[in-house]
Amino acid sequence: MRRAALMLAIITLIGPPPAVAQDAEAVAIRASRVFRGLSSLRASFQQTIEDRMVGSQDSRGELVQSGSANLAMRFDDPKGDAIILDGTNVWVYTPSTAPGQVIRMPIPNDPVYGPNVLARILDKPTERYATRGMGRDTLEGRTVDIVEFTPNAADPLFSRAVIWFDRQYGLPRRLVLDELTGIRRTLTLSRIRTNTAVSRKDFSFEVPAGVRIIDR
User: Fold this and answer.
1) In 3-state terms, what secondary structure has residue 140?
2) How far is CA 89 from the centre of its chain?
3) What DSSP character marks residue 40?
4) Is beta strand 142-151 parallel, antiparallel or unpaired with respect to 158-166?
C-alpha cells in the first residue's frame, strides 16, 4: 500500500507523459509528407493582416502552388493585386497601395529562407521548429489539429507560426504568422483542390503597360 501510494504521488507530481507534444510532432510529420507529395495545390484564400500602427486589413483571392518555387496569389479584393513566384523571381504587384510599379526579387535557393512560408515550414518541420499541440477544433465544418511552430534558430520572417491541419487529409487549412515586423498575418484556405494540372501561365506575371519594375 505504501509503495502504491508513493508511486501515485510521483505520477501526480510529474504529470502524464507528454502525449500532446508527441501528437504535435506526429501531425507535423504527416502534414509534411502530404504537402511535399503534392504536385499542386489550388485554393481560395482569405487573408487578414493585423498591424498595431494601421489596424486590420482583409483581402481574398485564389492561390496556386507547385513545389517551393512556384506560387501565385491573385487577389479579387483588392482587385488586381498579385504575389507571384515564377520559379526564378518573386513579383509583388500591389496597385491598390503602390500603383505604377512592381517589385521583382530573386527567389532564394534555400526553402528555409524562401518566401513560400508553408513550403518552408513543412519542408523539415520537426528539425527546424519546436512543435506544440494547441488542441483540436472545427474549421468550416472540418476537424482540425492545431500546431504551433517556433523556429529553433532565428528566422528572417517570423517568430511563431500556428497551423490548423485538416485531420482527414493532413492539409493546412489556416496559417497564423507572428512576423518580426510586429504584424500578425492570418491566411485561411478553402475549396482546396490537390494535384490538378498546372501550367507555366499559372505562375507567370505579365508586367502591365506603363508599370515600372523595381529590382531588389
Assistant:
1) coil
2) 19
3) -
4) antiparallel
Q: What's the DSSP call for residue 206? A: P
Range of the domain at 63: 18-205
Helix (H, G, I), strand (E, B) or coil at 121: helix
Domains held by the chain: number: 1
Q: Please say whether the beta carbons of 18 and 149 come within 8 A.
A: no
- Identify whether 10 is part of a domain: no
Is 24 inside a domain boundary?
yes
Average pLDDT of 19-25?
68
Residue 8 lies in a domain: no
What b/e readout covers 98-133, taking b as 16+ CB neighbours within 10 angstroms? eeeebbbeebeeebbebbbbbbbbbbebeeebebeb
Residue 85 backbone zone (phi > 0: left; psi -120 to 50: alpha; other: beta): beta
Length of the chain: 216
pLDDT digits (tens, 9 = 90+) for 134-183: 999 999 899 999 999 999 987 778 999 999 999 999 999 999 999 999 99
d(CA 179, CA 143): 27
Cα distances (Å, whole numbers) of residue 41 to 26, 93, 132: 22, 22, 26
Q: Give the containing element (helix H, strand E) for 172.
A: strand 172-179
User: CA torsion 208→201→38→133, rounded to 10°?
Assistant: 10
Residue 122: which CATH number? 2.50.20.10
Domain assignment present for 213? no
Assigned C-alpha cell, 54: 494601421
Separation of alpha carbons 58 and 46, rounded Å: 7
